[in-house]
Design brief:
4 strands
């Protein structure tokens, strides 16, 4: 060691560089420790008072709404109460950021693994809900569901079951749409979004709505029947309304 130091003509610079490197490593270790503590603290806060909220209560009303993509980051959030009772809403990006941090430390802190499992399944639920919504599934046009995280292991099972249920519903809905299109060839004249809009309008139009809504529906229906009139559309809607009322009795 002495011979090595004796022959090093830049010993001062070498020692200085070594000291700076040690200082950098120490700062990085402290920063990592602080991040770990902060992430675990946030995990515990969500476990004690967090509620995940999936879906949206915003229904589609106008034609423009059907061309507005519902993005995943708008379909998942969490409502968290602080120890002081203050309520805070975490957006998707906040939850994803925490999830990414917990993934890095899940090897050393296995208890946080449940959060990454739940977050992954909730993301899948959001993607499936988005598809069900765009397929026009009546149960998922304005749908919202809460998942509590107080018992993480139970929540993992609940969100897994919810995802499997929605996945099966999506599969059945897609098959139904394909069967209807094969059965009624004129439906092939429409794009998927146009069919969704027609389905929605014929289901929701009432006798007292503005004629502009009927007009939009009429224009689309004229693609398969040029002779159809606004009166025909209103009669069809009235018939559907009465049929629904009878079936609900």
């Amino acid at each position: 060691m002495y011979d090595f130091v004796k022959d090093d003509k830049q010993i001062t610079k070498t020692l200085k560089d070594a000291t700076e490197n040690l200082k950098w490593f120490k700062e990085m270790h402290e920063m990592q420790t602080d991040t770990t503590k902060s992430s675990i603290s946030q995990f515990e806060l969500i476990r004690s008072s967090g509620v995940f909220i999936v879906g949206t209560i915003h229904d589609r009303a106008d034609l423009s709404d059907f061309f507005e993509e519902r993005k995943i980051d708008s379909l998942l959030k969490a409502k968290i109460s602080s120890p002081t009772g203050e309520e805070r809403l975490w957006k998707f990006k906040d939850l994803k950021e925490l999830n990414d941090k917990l993934v890095l430390i899940s090897g050393e802190h296995t208890k946080v693994h449940t959060f990454t499992q739940v977050f992954g399944k909730l993301t899948q639920i959001c993607e499936t809900f988005k598809e069900l919504n765009e397929c026009g599934h009546s149960s998922y046009q304005a749908w919202e569901k809460e998942f509590y995280f107080t018992d993480p292991d139970t929540t993992v099972q609940i969100v897994s079951d919810q995802y499997l249920q929605m996945r099966d519903e999506l599969k059945a809905e897609k098959k139904n749409i394909e069967d209807q299109i094969r059965k009624y060839e004129p439906l092939m004249n429409y794009t998927h979004l146009q069919l969704l809009y027609l389905r929605y309008q014929l289901h929701h139009l009432k006798e007292n709505v503005l004629d502009s809504h009927y007009q939009q529906t009429l224009i689309l229906l004229q693609a398969i029947n040029l002779q159809i009139t606004l009166t025909d559309v209103k009669k069809a809607v009235l018939h559907l309304t009465r049929s629904r009322k009878l079936s609900e009795r």
